[in-house]
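Morning. Coffee machine broken again, so started the prediction first thing and wrote up yesterday's gels while waiting. Chain of 300 residues, entered below exactly as on the submission form.
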Amino acid sequence: MRVQPLTESLWLEAHGDADSFMAHGGGMAIALGTLLAVLSAVANGTFTIFSKTGAVRRARVDPVVFNLWACVGIVLSSLLTLVMYKFVWSYMGLISGLLFVLSASNSYRAVRLIGVSVGTGIWCGTAVLVSFVAGLVFDPNGALKSKLWALVAIIIIMIGIVGVAYAGHVGRVAAGHEENLDTLLQHPVTGEQRSGTFSTGVFTAIFAGLAGGLIMIPLTRASAEAQGIPYLPSFAIGVAIFAPIVTAIPYVTRVDREMPNLAPAAAALPGIVSGIVWNIGNVFSILAIGYISYSIAYPM
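Came back before lunch.
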């Protein structure tokens, strides 16, 4: 069932009259939706920094293992919503859960390969473009009054993200402590080779953005009862199912079949906190979608 964003409902009530739309709270709805989207962007742009803590570095925690702990944080924080909302099952949550696990595991790996500033810039830029296009194609509320100007805005945002990432990279090189000094160029894990590390990191970050930009598209296709915050428990179930599978794949495919070192002392707390931070951003994003639609809220 199609659930209209608040701004669209107000616009229809105003019969397309801008003054009436603003008088009935349209401007406030846009402002609040935009604020929520910006807060979501802050959380989504910073959740991976916890994988660079001293304890995690010293323990050389595998990115897929750190991702597993982050998924624990996602599941725990998502299930907390059952205190205020009744459980509403949606199989769409399984798809969102799989997309998150794939995106996050590659995000952490990209950070390990090419650093936070470069990795974040690449996957955020990719996610912006993917979520914008996916919102127009798949979201029933994705119709925009001016697709051209919306596309221009997205391009400007992407240029800004790339600029910030490049500036951060150059700044750290100039300061003599570029993050790559502690990436897989020096400390390979899970059989990672030194050669081609940067290009591998770039492709990993791009894949993270491809999956990340689609995470909440299934939400737009869920039943009306499951949309919004009630969607989180179903999403958590999807994460809980696919996180162990994604974690195990790199190890079961190795010749020595070495079991992963979960490193709970070093990775549990920062990993869980990382997942919670991402999910806080996810909540902001879901709320923003309710105000200004997926194709506008998620790319921000």
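The two ends are 25 Å apart (CA to CA). Going to sketch it on the whiteboard this afternoon.
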